[in-house]
Amino acid sequence: MNGGQAAQEPDRAGADGTRPSRRAALAATAGLTASVSGCAGRLRDLFTQRNIRQLSLTITTLPADSDRESIRIANKLEQTLTTVGIDVSFDVRSGTEFNRAVLYDHEFDICIGRHPGGTDPDFLYEALHSLYIDESGWQNPFGYANLAVDDLLEKQRHADGAERRDAVTNALEAIATEQPFVPICVPEEHRVVSTDRFTGWADGHLATRSGYLGLEPTADVETLRAVHTDSRPTKNLNPLAADYRGRGTITQLLYDSLATDDATGEIQPWLASSWEWRGATLDVHLRNGCTFHDGEPVTAADVEFTYQFLADMSGDDDDRVAPAPRFRGWIDAVEAIDVRDRDRLELTVDAGHAVGERALLVPILPAHIWRERSASPMGLGGSVLSQGTTTAVVTNNVPPVGSGPYQFVTRSEGDQLTLERFDDHFTLRSGVERPAPMIDTFSIDISPNSETAIQAVENDTADVTSAALDTNLVESVDDDGTQQLLESPSWTFYYLGFNTRKAPFGNPRFRRVIARLLDKEWLVENVFYGHARPVATPVTEQWVPDTLTWDGQDPETPFLGANGEVDVDAARAAFEDAGFRYDDRDRLRVRQ
């Protein structure tokens, strides 16, 4: 839906160095020239009034059936912005179209959605470093460029231990000052599971492979029945497609990575049997005898191909460099790969050990399938990636061929996806202490919303709601003897993103005022019904520095008002202090 009116959604439950100072960082990085006050400014306006107009902006977000919380945040923000003299319109898009607009085409003013985040703060390197400003995917969709912040992100990347923690703190404080995006809150994740057919639901996170591989059938059960509220996995199974991929759970089931992590961010060997650090080099040994789903062997050459391909999908015959729109931050830590033999390779890493080991989390692609996808497709419609488009990005990758614990069987687009256990997977070997697929078939049915997904478990037609529930329905779940409401930690977060390629969104002073128009406490209580925690910085709690710890309000950009209602005079004064002005009709003005 496009247009100038607010989208409506029914309300179910009612309404090494000295740390730079944040002031110095802000003063050093202000993106626009502030308007001149006094007589000189008024005289100039007499000659330039035709270039003055009311500030208009568009909020790009998702519809209620895709993300109920995002549209409600957007509606509240629209009311507040209108109150303080800004003209607002909506651009409401499906999940796929939202990701294309924001991540590929960069066609938005501000956007509200859910960021995949990460269990380690290094995800901010990919999200904000200016190296990625013209790339597509989750690497810097905001077009943000600040050399001081780049330097801080690089410092944390090359450090370990206490030195890294200090570097992360400096980076987080600088980002909080700049507000390239506004972290709003971290939602709780709730899923409904049935306990009469399977046990072990709490042993692994259900947004990762470990949540499903550790399940034990209670009887002669052959099929795990999941109900999912996002139909995109039935339409596209390309692990590189940022417009179709969410948390990457299905990718993890279909594709192995050298390492795996859990909800705490701990890195453990997976397809790699072991690795050893030798200075800046990771000596990696693969498990012997692993194969892809089509029977071809998994070798060190496939690993080498994967990292080279993700860094540049264009192939040897193309002058363009086309990085993959996913996994960019991880593979960028790898400087060189040296294949030693069939099951052994060395990775030279330009990062500390913590970040270097995260480079082992990318899905390993079969070279015999993906090498030919470096060509540019003919007659491509829709979005065109700024760094060049190859077949690797636009293919739906059906059927997918990986080496993961489950393999593709069939799909019905928009309706159902069926996987089956890959019996040659290494986790099924004796002596391998990793969770293994214990169920023959994994069936994923698509449900239109969280409410019908809950009903499917209640009616015993599903065993798990594999997507996190809408927060307004959490209290409605009948948590009886055969059903369980399972809460899992989250590293995703809701955010307001700015397209800093456009004025005035490139101005950090403007962004800071907008950030102060969001009452995060009110949103948590009234949009998420308390099933979230407001945040001032988008990292897991163990990484939050004291200076950015939430204490009733955002310590960096406190709300200009109370109880969800903005103080209009305070907001107008904040915009004027930031160098903007109002006309005699209380409309915020900007230069064209």
From TrEMBL:
It comes from the Archaea. Coiled coil: none annotated. The keyword Magnesium does not apply. One of its GO terms (molecular function) is peptide transmembrane transporter activity. Residues 1-22 are annotated as: Disordered. Signal peptide: none annotated. InterPro entries: SBP_5, SBP_5_dom. GO terms for biological process: microcin transport; peptide transport. Pfam families: SBP_bac_5. Keywords: Signal, Transport. Residues 266-585 form the Solute-binding protein family domain. PANTHER family: OLIGOPEPTIDE-BINDING PROTEIN APPA, PERIPLASMIC BINDING COMPONENT OF ABC TRANSPORTER. Belongs to the bacterial solute-binding protein 5 family. This is Peptide/nickel transport system substrate-binding protein. It comes from Natrinema hispanicum.
